[in-house]
Structure formats: C-alpha cells, structure tokens
Amino acid sequence: MTTLSPPVVYDPYSAAFQADPWPVYRHLRDTAPVYVSERWGFYALSRLDDVRATRPSCRSSASTSTTRPRT
Asked: How many domains does the chain have?
C-alpha cells in the first residue's frame, strides 16, 4: 500500500514558515514542483532547473528590443 504525503501548504506570510522555511521548501521540491496558492493567488516554482527553464533569456527580453526615441 502506498502512503500519501499530506497536502502541501505554502504560506510565506505565516509565522511558522517565517520561523523555519526549509522543511516547507524541501516538501515543495519533493511533492509540488509547481505550487498554486489559491489563497494568495500566485504560482511558485520550487526547483532551480524549472525556474531557469521558464525565465526569459536576456536576448529575448523586451528591454533589449525596445526602440528609444532619438534625441
């Protein structure tokens, strides 16, 4: 029989999380690499490789493709 882990609750504003965030981070990495907080309305990626894969590259950034007015 498989044992299910308890659901992940990630509340970065809670006193318990602020006191010791590391167990929550580990649990997120192990069980919820993409976490959706319905309470706070955000998504959190808990694995570095996932964060790297989703960030825009400097070459495709909007800031490098904007046109500056001529002076």
From this structure: 1
